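Hey team,

Filing this mostly as a record. A colleague (T.K.) asked me to run one chain through the structure pipeline before their review meeting, and I want the input and output archived in the tracker in case anyone asks later how it was produced. No errors, nothing strange. Just documentation.

Input sequence:
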Amino acid sequence: MIPNKIFPKEWMEIHPYTTINQTDLYFTSLANELYKQDFPSDLPEPYRRKICLYTAAYLEDTISELGLWSSFRRKHKELYGTALPFWPTEKDYIEDEINETDLRFIIWNTWEKACYPHPYINPNNEQIKKLAHSFYHMLSSVYETAPENEKLKGYFTGFNTETEAEHKLSWLFGHTYLTEPAIAPYIKNLAPQHRFIVPTGPLALFLYEWIEILSNNPSWQTIKNLFPGPETLLEDMKKHHAEIYRKFMEGTGGKNIVYLNGYESLHRFLTEILEWPDDDDHMLPQLKTHKNFILMVNPEKGILLAKDICAYIADKNNPLYNREEAKKHAFRLLTEETLCPPDLLTYCITNKLLPDAMLPGGEEQALVSQNADFIARHSLLSFYRGD
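Output structure:
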């Protein structure tokens, strides 16, 4: 049975220390006041609690100058030109203070990332808007009097020991109010070293990208594996990829992407254009049951293959595009892990080849179009930003 009260223990689970102080008790009490509000009826109880905890932590972050929210906002603006996804910020939006639109995002982010089966949550859900308005009224009433948490002020500015740095990075990766929703489904299966190669948070940022925004301290450069090293590719592999690229581009008249109808077309392309041996190791017989294929080539990475998604991509060179099918299923490319290889999805978003994508149920086509890259980052994490 879920208790009807939020306890300090729950609050401490999204903090980097274990000793409770008066500030922690204050924000736990605030979370309990938030918990009394009317929540969306189909939002499970555990995530109502999470929303209250995260909202209180957002206020704490803002007052204490931790920098998480401001870093997210600045990076979003750098990437997309706006402070937040989905909605224009209100006329009286003040950076580095509390805002109703911020709360709307926190509620949506928590609900959309909740670990239970549910359709994609419409950011324009009226219940979210109503709850954000109630929360904003409550936070506004305490904004001037709520205490700073001195333990969090400038928390990521630097560190004294490597152990301290590792502790801070572990907290940042998956236990803050802004990163926990993204990583919660995966964290039990991630080894410590995965922190450096798995992106986290609403924008799927790698830890080094978070640190670059949060701190100007060059000492972070000394933490092993935090920042990516130079990519190395064996010379033989480089030559192999370059040769595939040459044959592909020559065979397609300069196109780096082709759409193939059926396995026989795939087989013909691989044997006649790429000149691969006609054997089971090269001809991928396990794909015979699939309807259509996309091949895309890169001079450095070689070739990628996607299956059964041609109908969703509105490319003038794609004879298999089907607008009605795209309206039903193109959104899945932005949210369904492994359905579309990252480089192909980036290509589609950059070239606006998913104009029919909309939320399940046929809603918000313009919203999806304007926020496609954000939705892919937010939904797919490594499955979009990884290789």
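Quick notes for T.K.: The first strand starts at residue 257 and ends at 261. The chain has a mean pLDDT of 95.
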